[in-house]
Amino acid sequence: MVYIAGDVHLPGGDPAFSRFLDGLLARGPARLVILGDLFDYWLDTPHSRARYADCFARLARLREAGWRVDLLVGNREMTAGRMLDAGFGDRAVWPMLTFQLGPRRVRVVHGDRLCDDPGYHFLFAFMRSFWFRTMRACHPGWIQEGVARMIRWRSRTKQLQRRRQPRSRGASEDMLFSPRVRAVGRGVDTVVAGHIHESWRRRIAGVDLILAGDWSYDRGHWVEGYADGRLELRRSSFSTPLASAAEAVD
Ligand SMILES: [Mn+2]
Questions:
Q1: Where are the domains of the chain?
Q2: pLDDT for res 170
Q3: Which residue of 126, 132, 142, 193 is most buried, as measured by CB atoms within 10 A?
Q4: What is the separation of C-alpha 62 from the centre of its chain, rounded to a whole number of angstroms?
Q5: How many CB atoms lie within 10 A of CB 48?
Q6: What pTM value is reported for the model?
């Protein structure tokens, strides 16, 4: 059994996501794949690690209970480094994770690289590069804060531009770049992605593509995979404060 969730954008996706993790803990050990953008933005500093200590503790508890937990790097974690690995307790995965689910070969990606935005891809490659990481290690936190703010501003401006355009049903599909989807889907039966903050399953460029959806403070979307290869979209609201964690997941 595998649970795939992402785009939590902490602290935005809490407390729903914390309840979800507590609910998982109440179940038997399985696998959890977090497909990136767990944090609204991640700076690879001790401050970030301390800020999200609650979430890291929950993930550690799952692991202690026998769960396998994988964390993929999303665009909000593009500066991920040693501090993220230390907080998470394992190496974060980038750029994709491929595994077998019964008869089905599944590939999980964050999804940003499925979209057509050459400027963004260049920026991401640059940020991930060795030289940037080396340079960053010498920079004080406030410069990193400034860089993060600039990137978020850029992202928000793009979102606003997108919102101003007339939206049709296929608008989110238009964000996907077919050759990239085809390339990522090569050799697997199904691709699971996030990033677009929608929850659906469609055939795009011949690929069985699932978008896992996102999280807000009182509701969340995720994907459940079963030993027979079935993959199902799930969503739940976590609005009842007194509901037990196990109930909240159902
Ligand atoms: Mn994203």
A1: 2-116+171-240
A2: 58
A3: 193
A4: 18
A5: 21
A6: 0.83
